[in-house]
Amino acid sequence: QVQLVESGGGSVQAGGSLRLSCTSSSNTFYCMAWFRQTPGKEREGVAAITTTGLTNYHDSVKGRFTISRDVTKSTVFLEMANLTAEDTALYYCAADSTCGGVTWHNFKTKNLSVWGQGTQVTVSS
Q1: What is the C-alpha to C-alpha distance for residues 121 and 88, in angstroms, rounded to an integer?
Q2: Which of 16, 69, 82, 105 could form a disulfide with 12 if both were Cys (CB 3.0 to 4.6 A apart)?
Q3: How many angstroms separate the CA atoms of 67 and 41, rounded?
């Protein structure tokens, strides 16, 4: 069974930076993405990337977060800068054979088939 393993979460002060990593145990997925969730709120898509380098970001993180990947290592990264308390959440990695075409439908509807366990990011103000 394919597993996604996240790492890099932690606690940081507002304005700081963190880098999350997620590695697939076997497959190289065309689409890899990051989601986040806080208690009482719906999980939201943060950023997604394809093996061809196409990217899509949630409006709230544009200009602050950067998604990238090392296809040879089946790893996706999320560089987070200028963090705010509103970025505090459990961050999940997800992957699938598609992000949902030109509309990024699967990413925007959280309809990816493989999920990691999550890594906590806490930003203190």
Answers
A1: 5
A2: 16
A3: 23
Q: pLDDT band at 28, cuts 50/70/90?
A: confident
51 near 71, Cβ under 8 Å? Answer: yes
User: What tokens does 82 get?
Assistant: 């200028």
Nearest partner of 70 among 107, 101, 112, 28, judged by Cα: 28
- The predicted structure's pLDDT at residue 24: 94
Q: Phi and psi dihedrals of 7, rounded to 5?
A: -155, 165
Task: Evaluate if residue 34 carries a pLDDT over 90.
Answer: yes
Residue 106: count of CB within 10 angstroms of its CB: 21
Asked whether residue 113 carries a pLDDT value surpassing 90, the answer given is yes
**Six token digits for residue 96:** 């699938």
Residue 47, judged by CB atoms within 10 A of its CB (0-12, 13-18, 19+), counts as buried
Could you give the CA distance from residue 97 to residue 38 in angstroms, rounded to a whole number? 27
